[in-house]
């Protein structure tokens, strides 16, 4: 009887004190900005695809010249705010590096951005936003190299943006348990 009571007291004490955080705390402004970024980016890709072959769909168009810097700044601001959520490092940043399928130079040429050793750093929201940024950099690099966004590039870009934003939103919306 005493043993059962003691177990019950310990279990109740542990359950009352066992709140721990999985992920970073929720930030509504990052959530809202990420939703806006996704909507604007997919809309932009669709507009560029529709106008492929026309000057309005070119990388050098006024629409593209206005969109890319604005979207880049929005992502940079989200990443800055995310870095302030927590100083913890995402566990993925401590995993062993896998041998590359292609060299860093080849990968940089493919995605149009330099590859660095410290690519994956920061709390988990920052790491997930890094993936969104990498997808966005590929969209812009492909648009720049091809001069337009055709059907295939639009499908690849939209899928990459949607998937990376979906994963990031899942992480951002994680709650305290």
Q: Spans of 5+ residues with little confidence (pLDDT < 50)?
A: 93-99
The best one-word shape is elongated
Number of helical regions: 6
Mean pLDDT: 79
Organism: Devosia litorisediminis
Keywords: Signal
Protein name: DUF4136 domain-containing protein
Summarize this entry quickly.
With 177 residues, this protein is mainly alpha-helical. The protein has helices spanning 2-16, 28-50, 62-83, 104-111, 124-146, 151-172.
What is the element layout, followed by pairings?
Elements: H1 2-16, H2 28-50, H3 62-83, H4 104-111, H5 124-146, H6 151-172
List the keywords.
single chain; 177 residues; mainly alpha; 6 helices; 0% strand; elongated
Structure commentary:
This protein has about 180 residues and is mainly alpha-helical. Helices cover about 65% and strands about 0% of the residues. It is built from six helices and no strands. It has helices spanning about 1-15, 30-50, 60-85, 105-110, 125-145, 150-170. The chain starts with a helix and ends in a 5-residue tail after the last helix. Mean pLDDT is about 80; it is low at about 95-100.
């Amino acid at each position: 009887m005493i043993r059962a009571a003691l177990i019950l007291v310990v279990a109740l004490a542990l359950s009352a004190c066992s709140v721990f955080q999985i992920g970073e705390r929720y930030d509504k402004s990052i959530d809202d900005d990420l939703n806006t970024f996704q909507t604007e980016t997919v809309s932009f890709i669709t507009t560029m695809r529709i106008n492929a072959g026309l000057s309005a769909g070119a990388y050098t168009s006024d629409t593209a010249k206005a969109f890319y810097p604005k979207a880049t700044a929005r992502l940079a601001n989200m990443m800055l705010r995310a870095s302030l959520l927590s100083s913890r490092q995402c566990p993925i940043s401590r995993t062993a590096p896998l041998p590359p399928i292609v060299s860093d130079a080849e990968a940089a040429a493919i995605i149009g951005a330099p590859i660095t050793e410290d690519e994956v750093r920061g709390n988990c929201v920052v790491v997930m936003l890094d993936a969104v940024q990498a997808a966005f950099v590929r969209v812009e690099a492909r648009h720049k190299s091809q001069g337009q966004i055709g059907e295939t590039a639009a499908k690849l870009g939209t899928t990459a943006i949607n998937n990376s934003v979906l994963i990031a939103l899942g992480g951002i919306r994680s709650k305290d348990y």
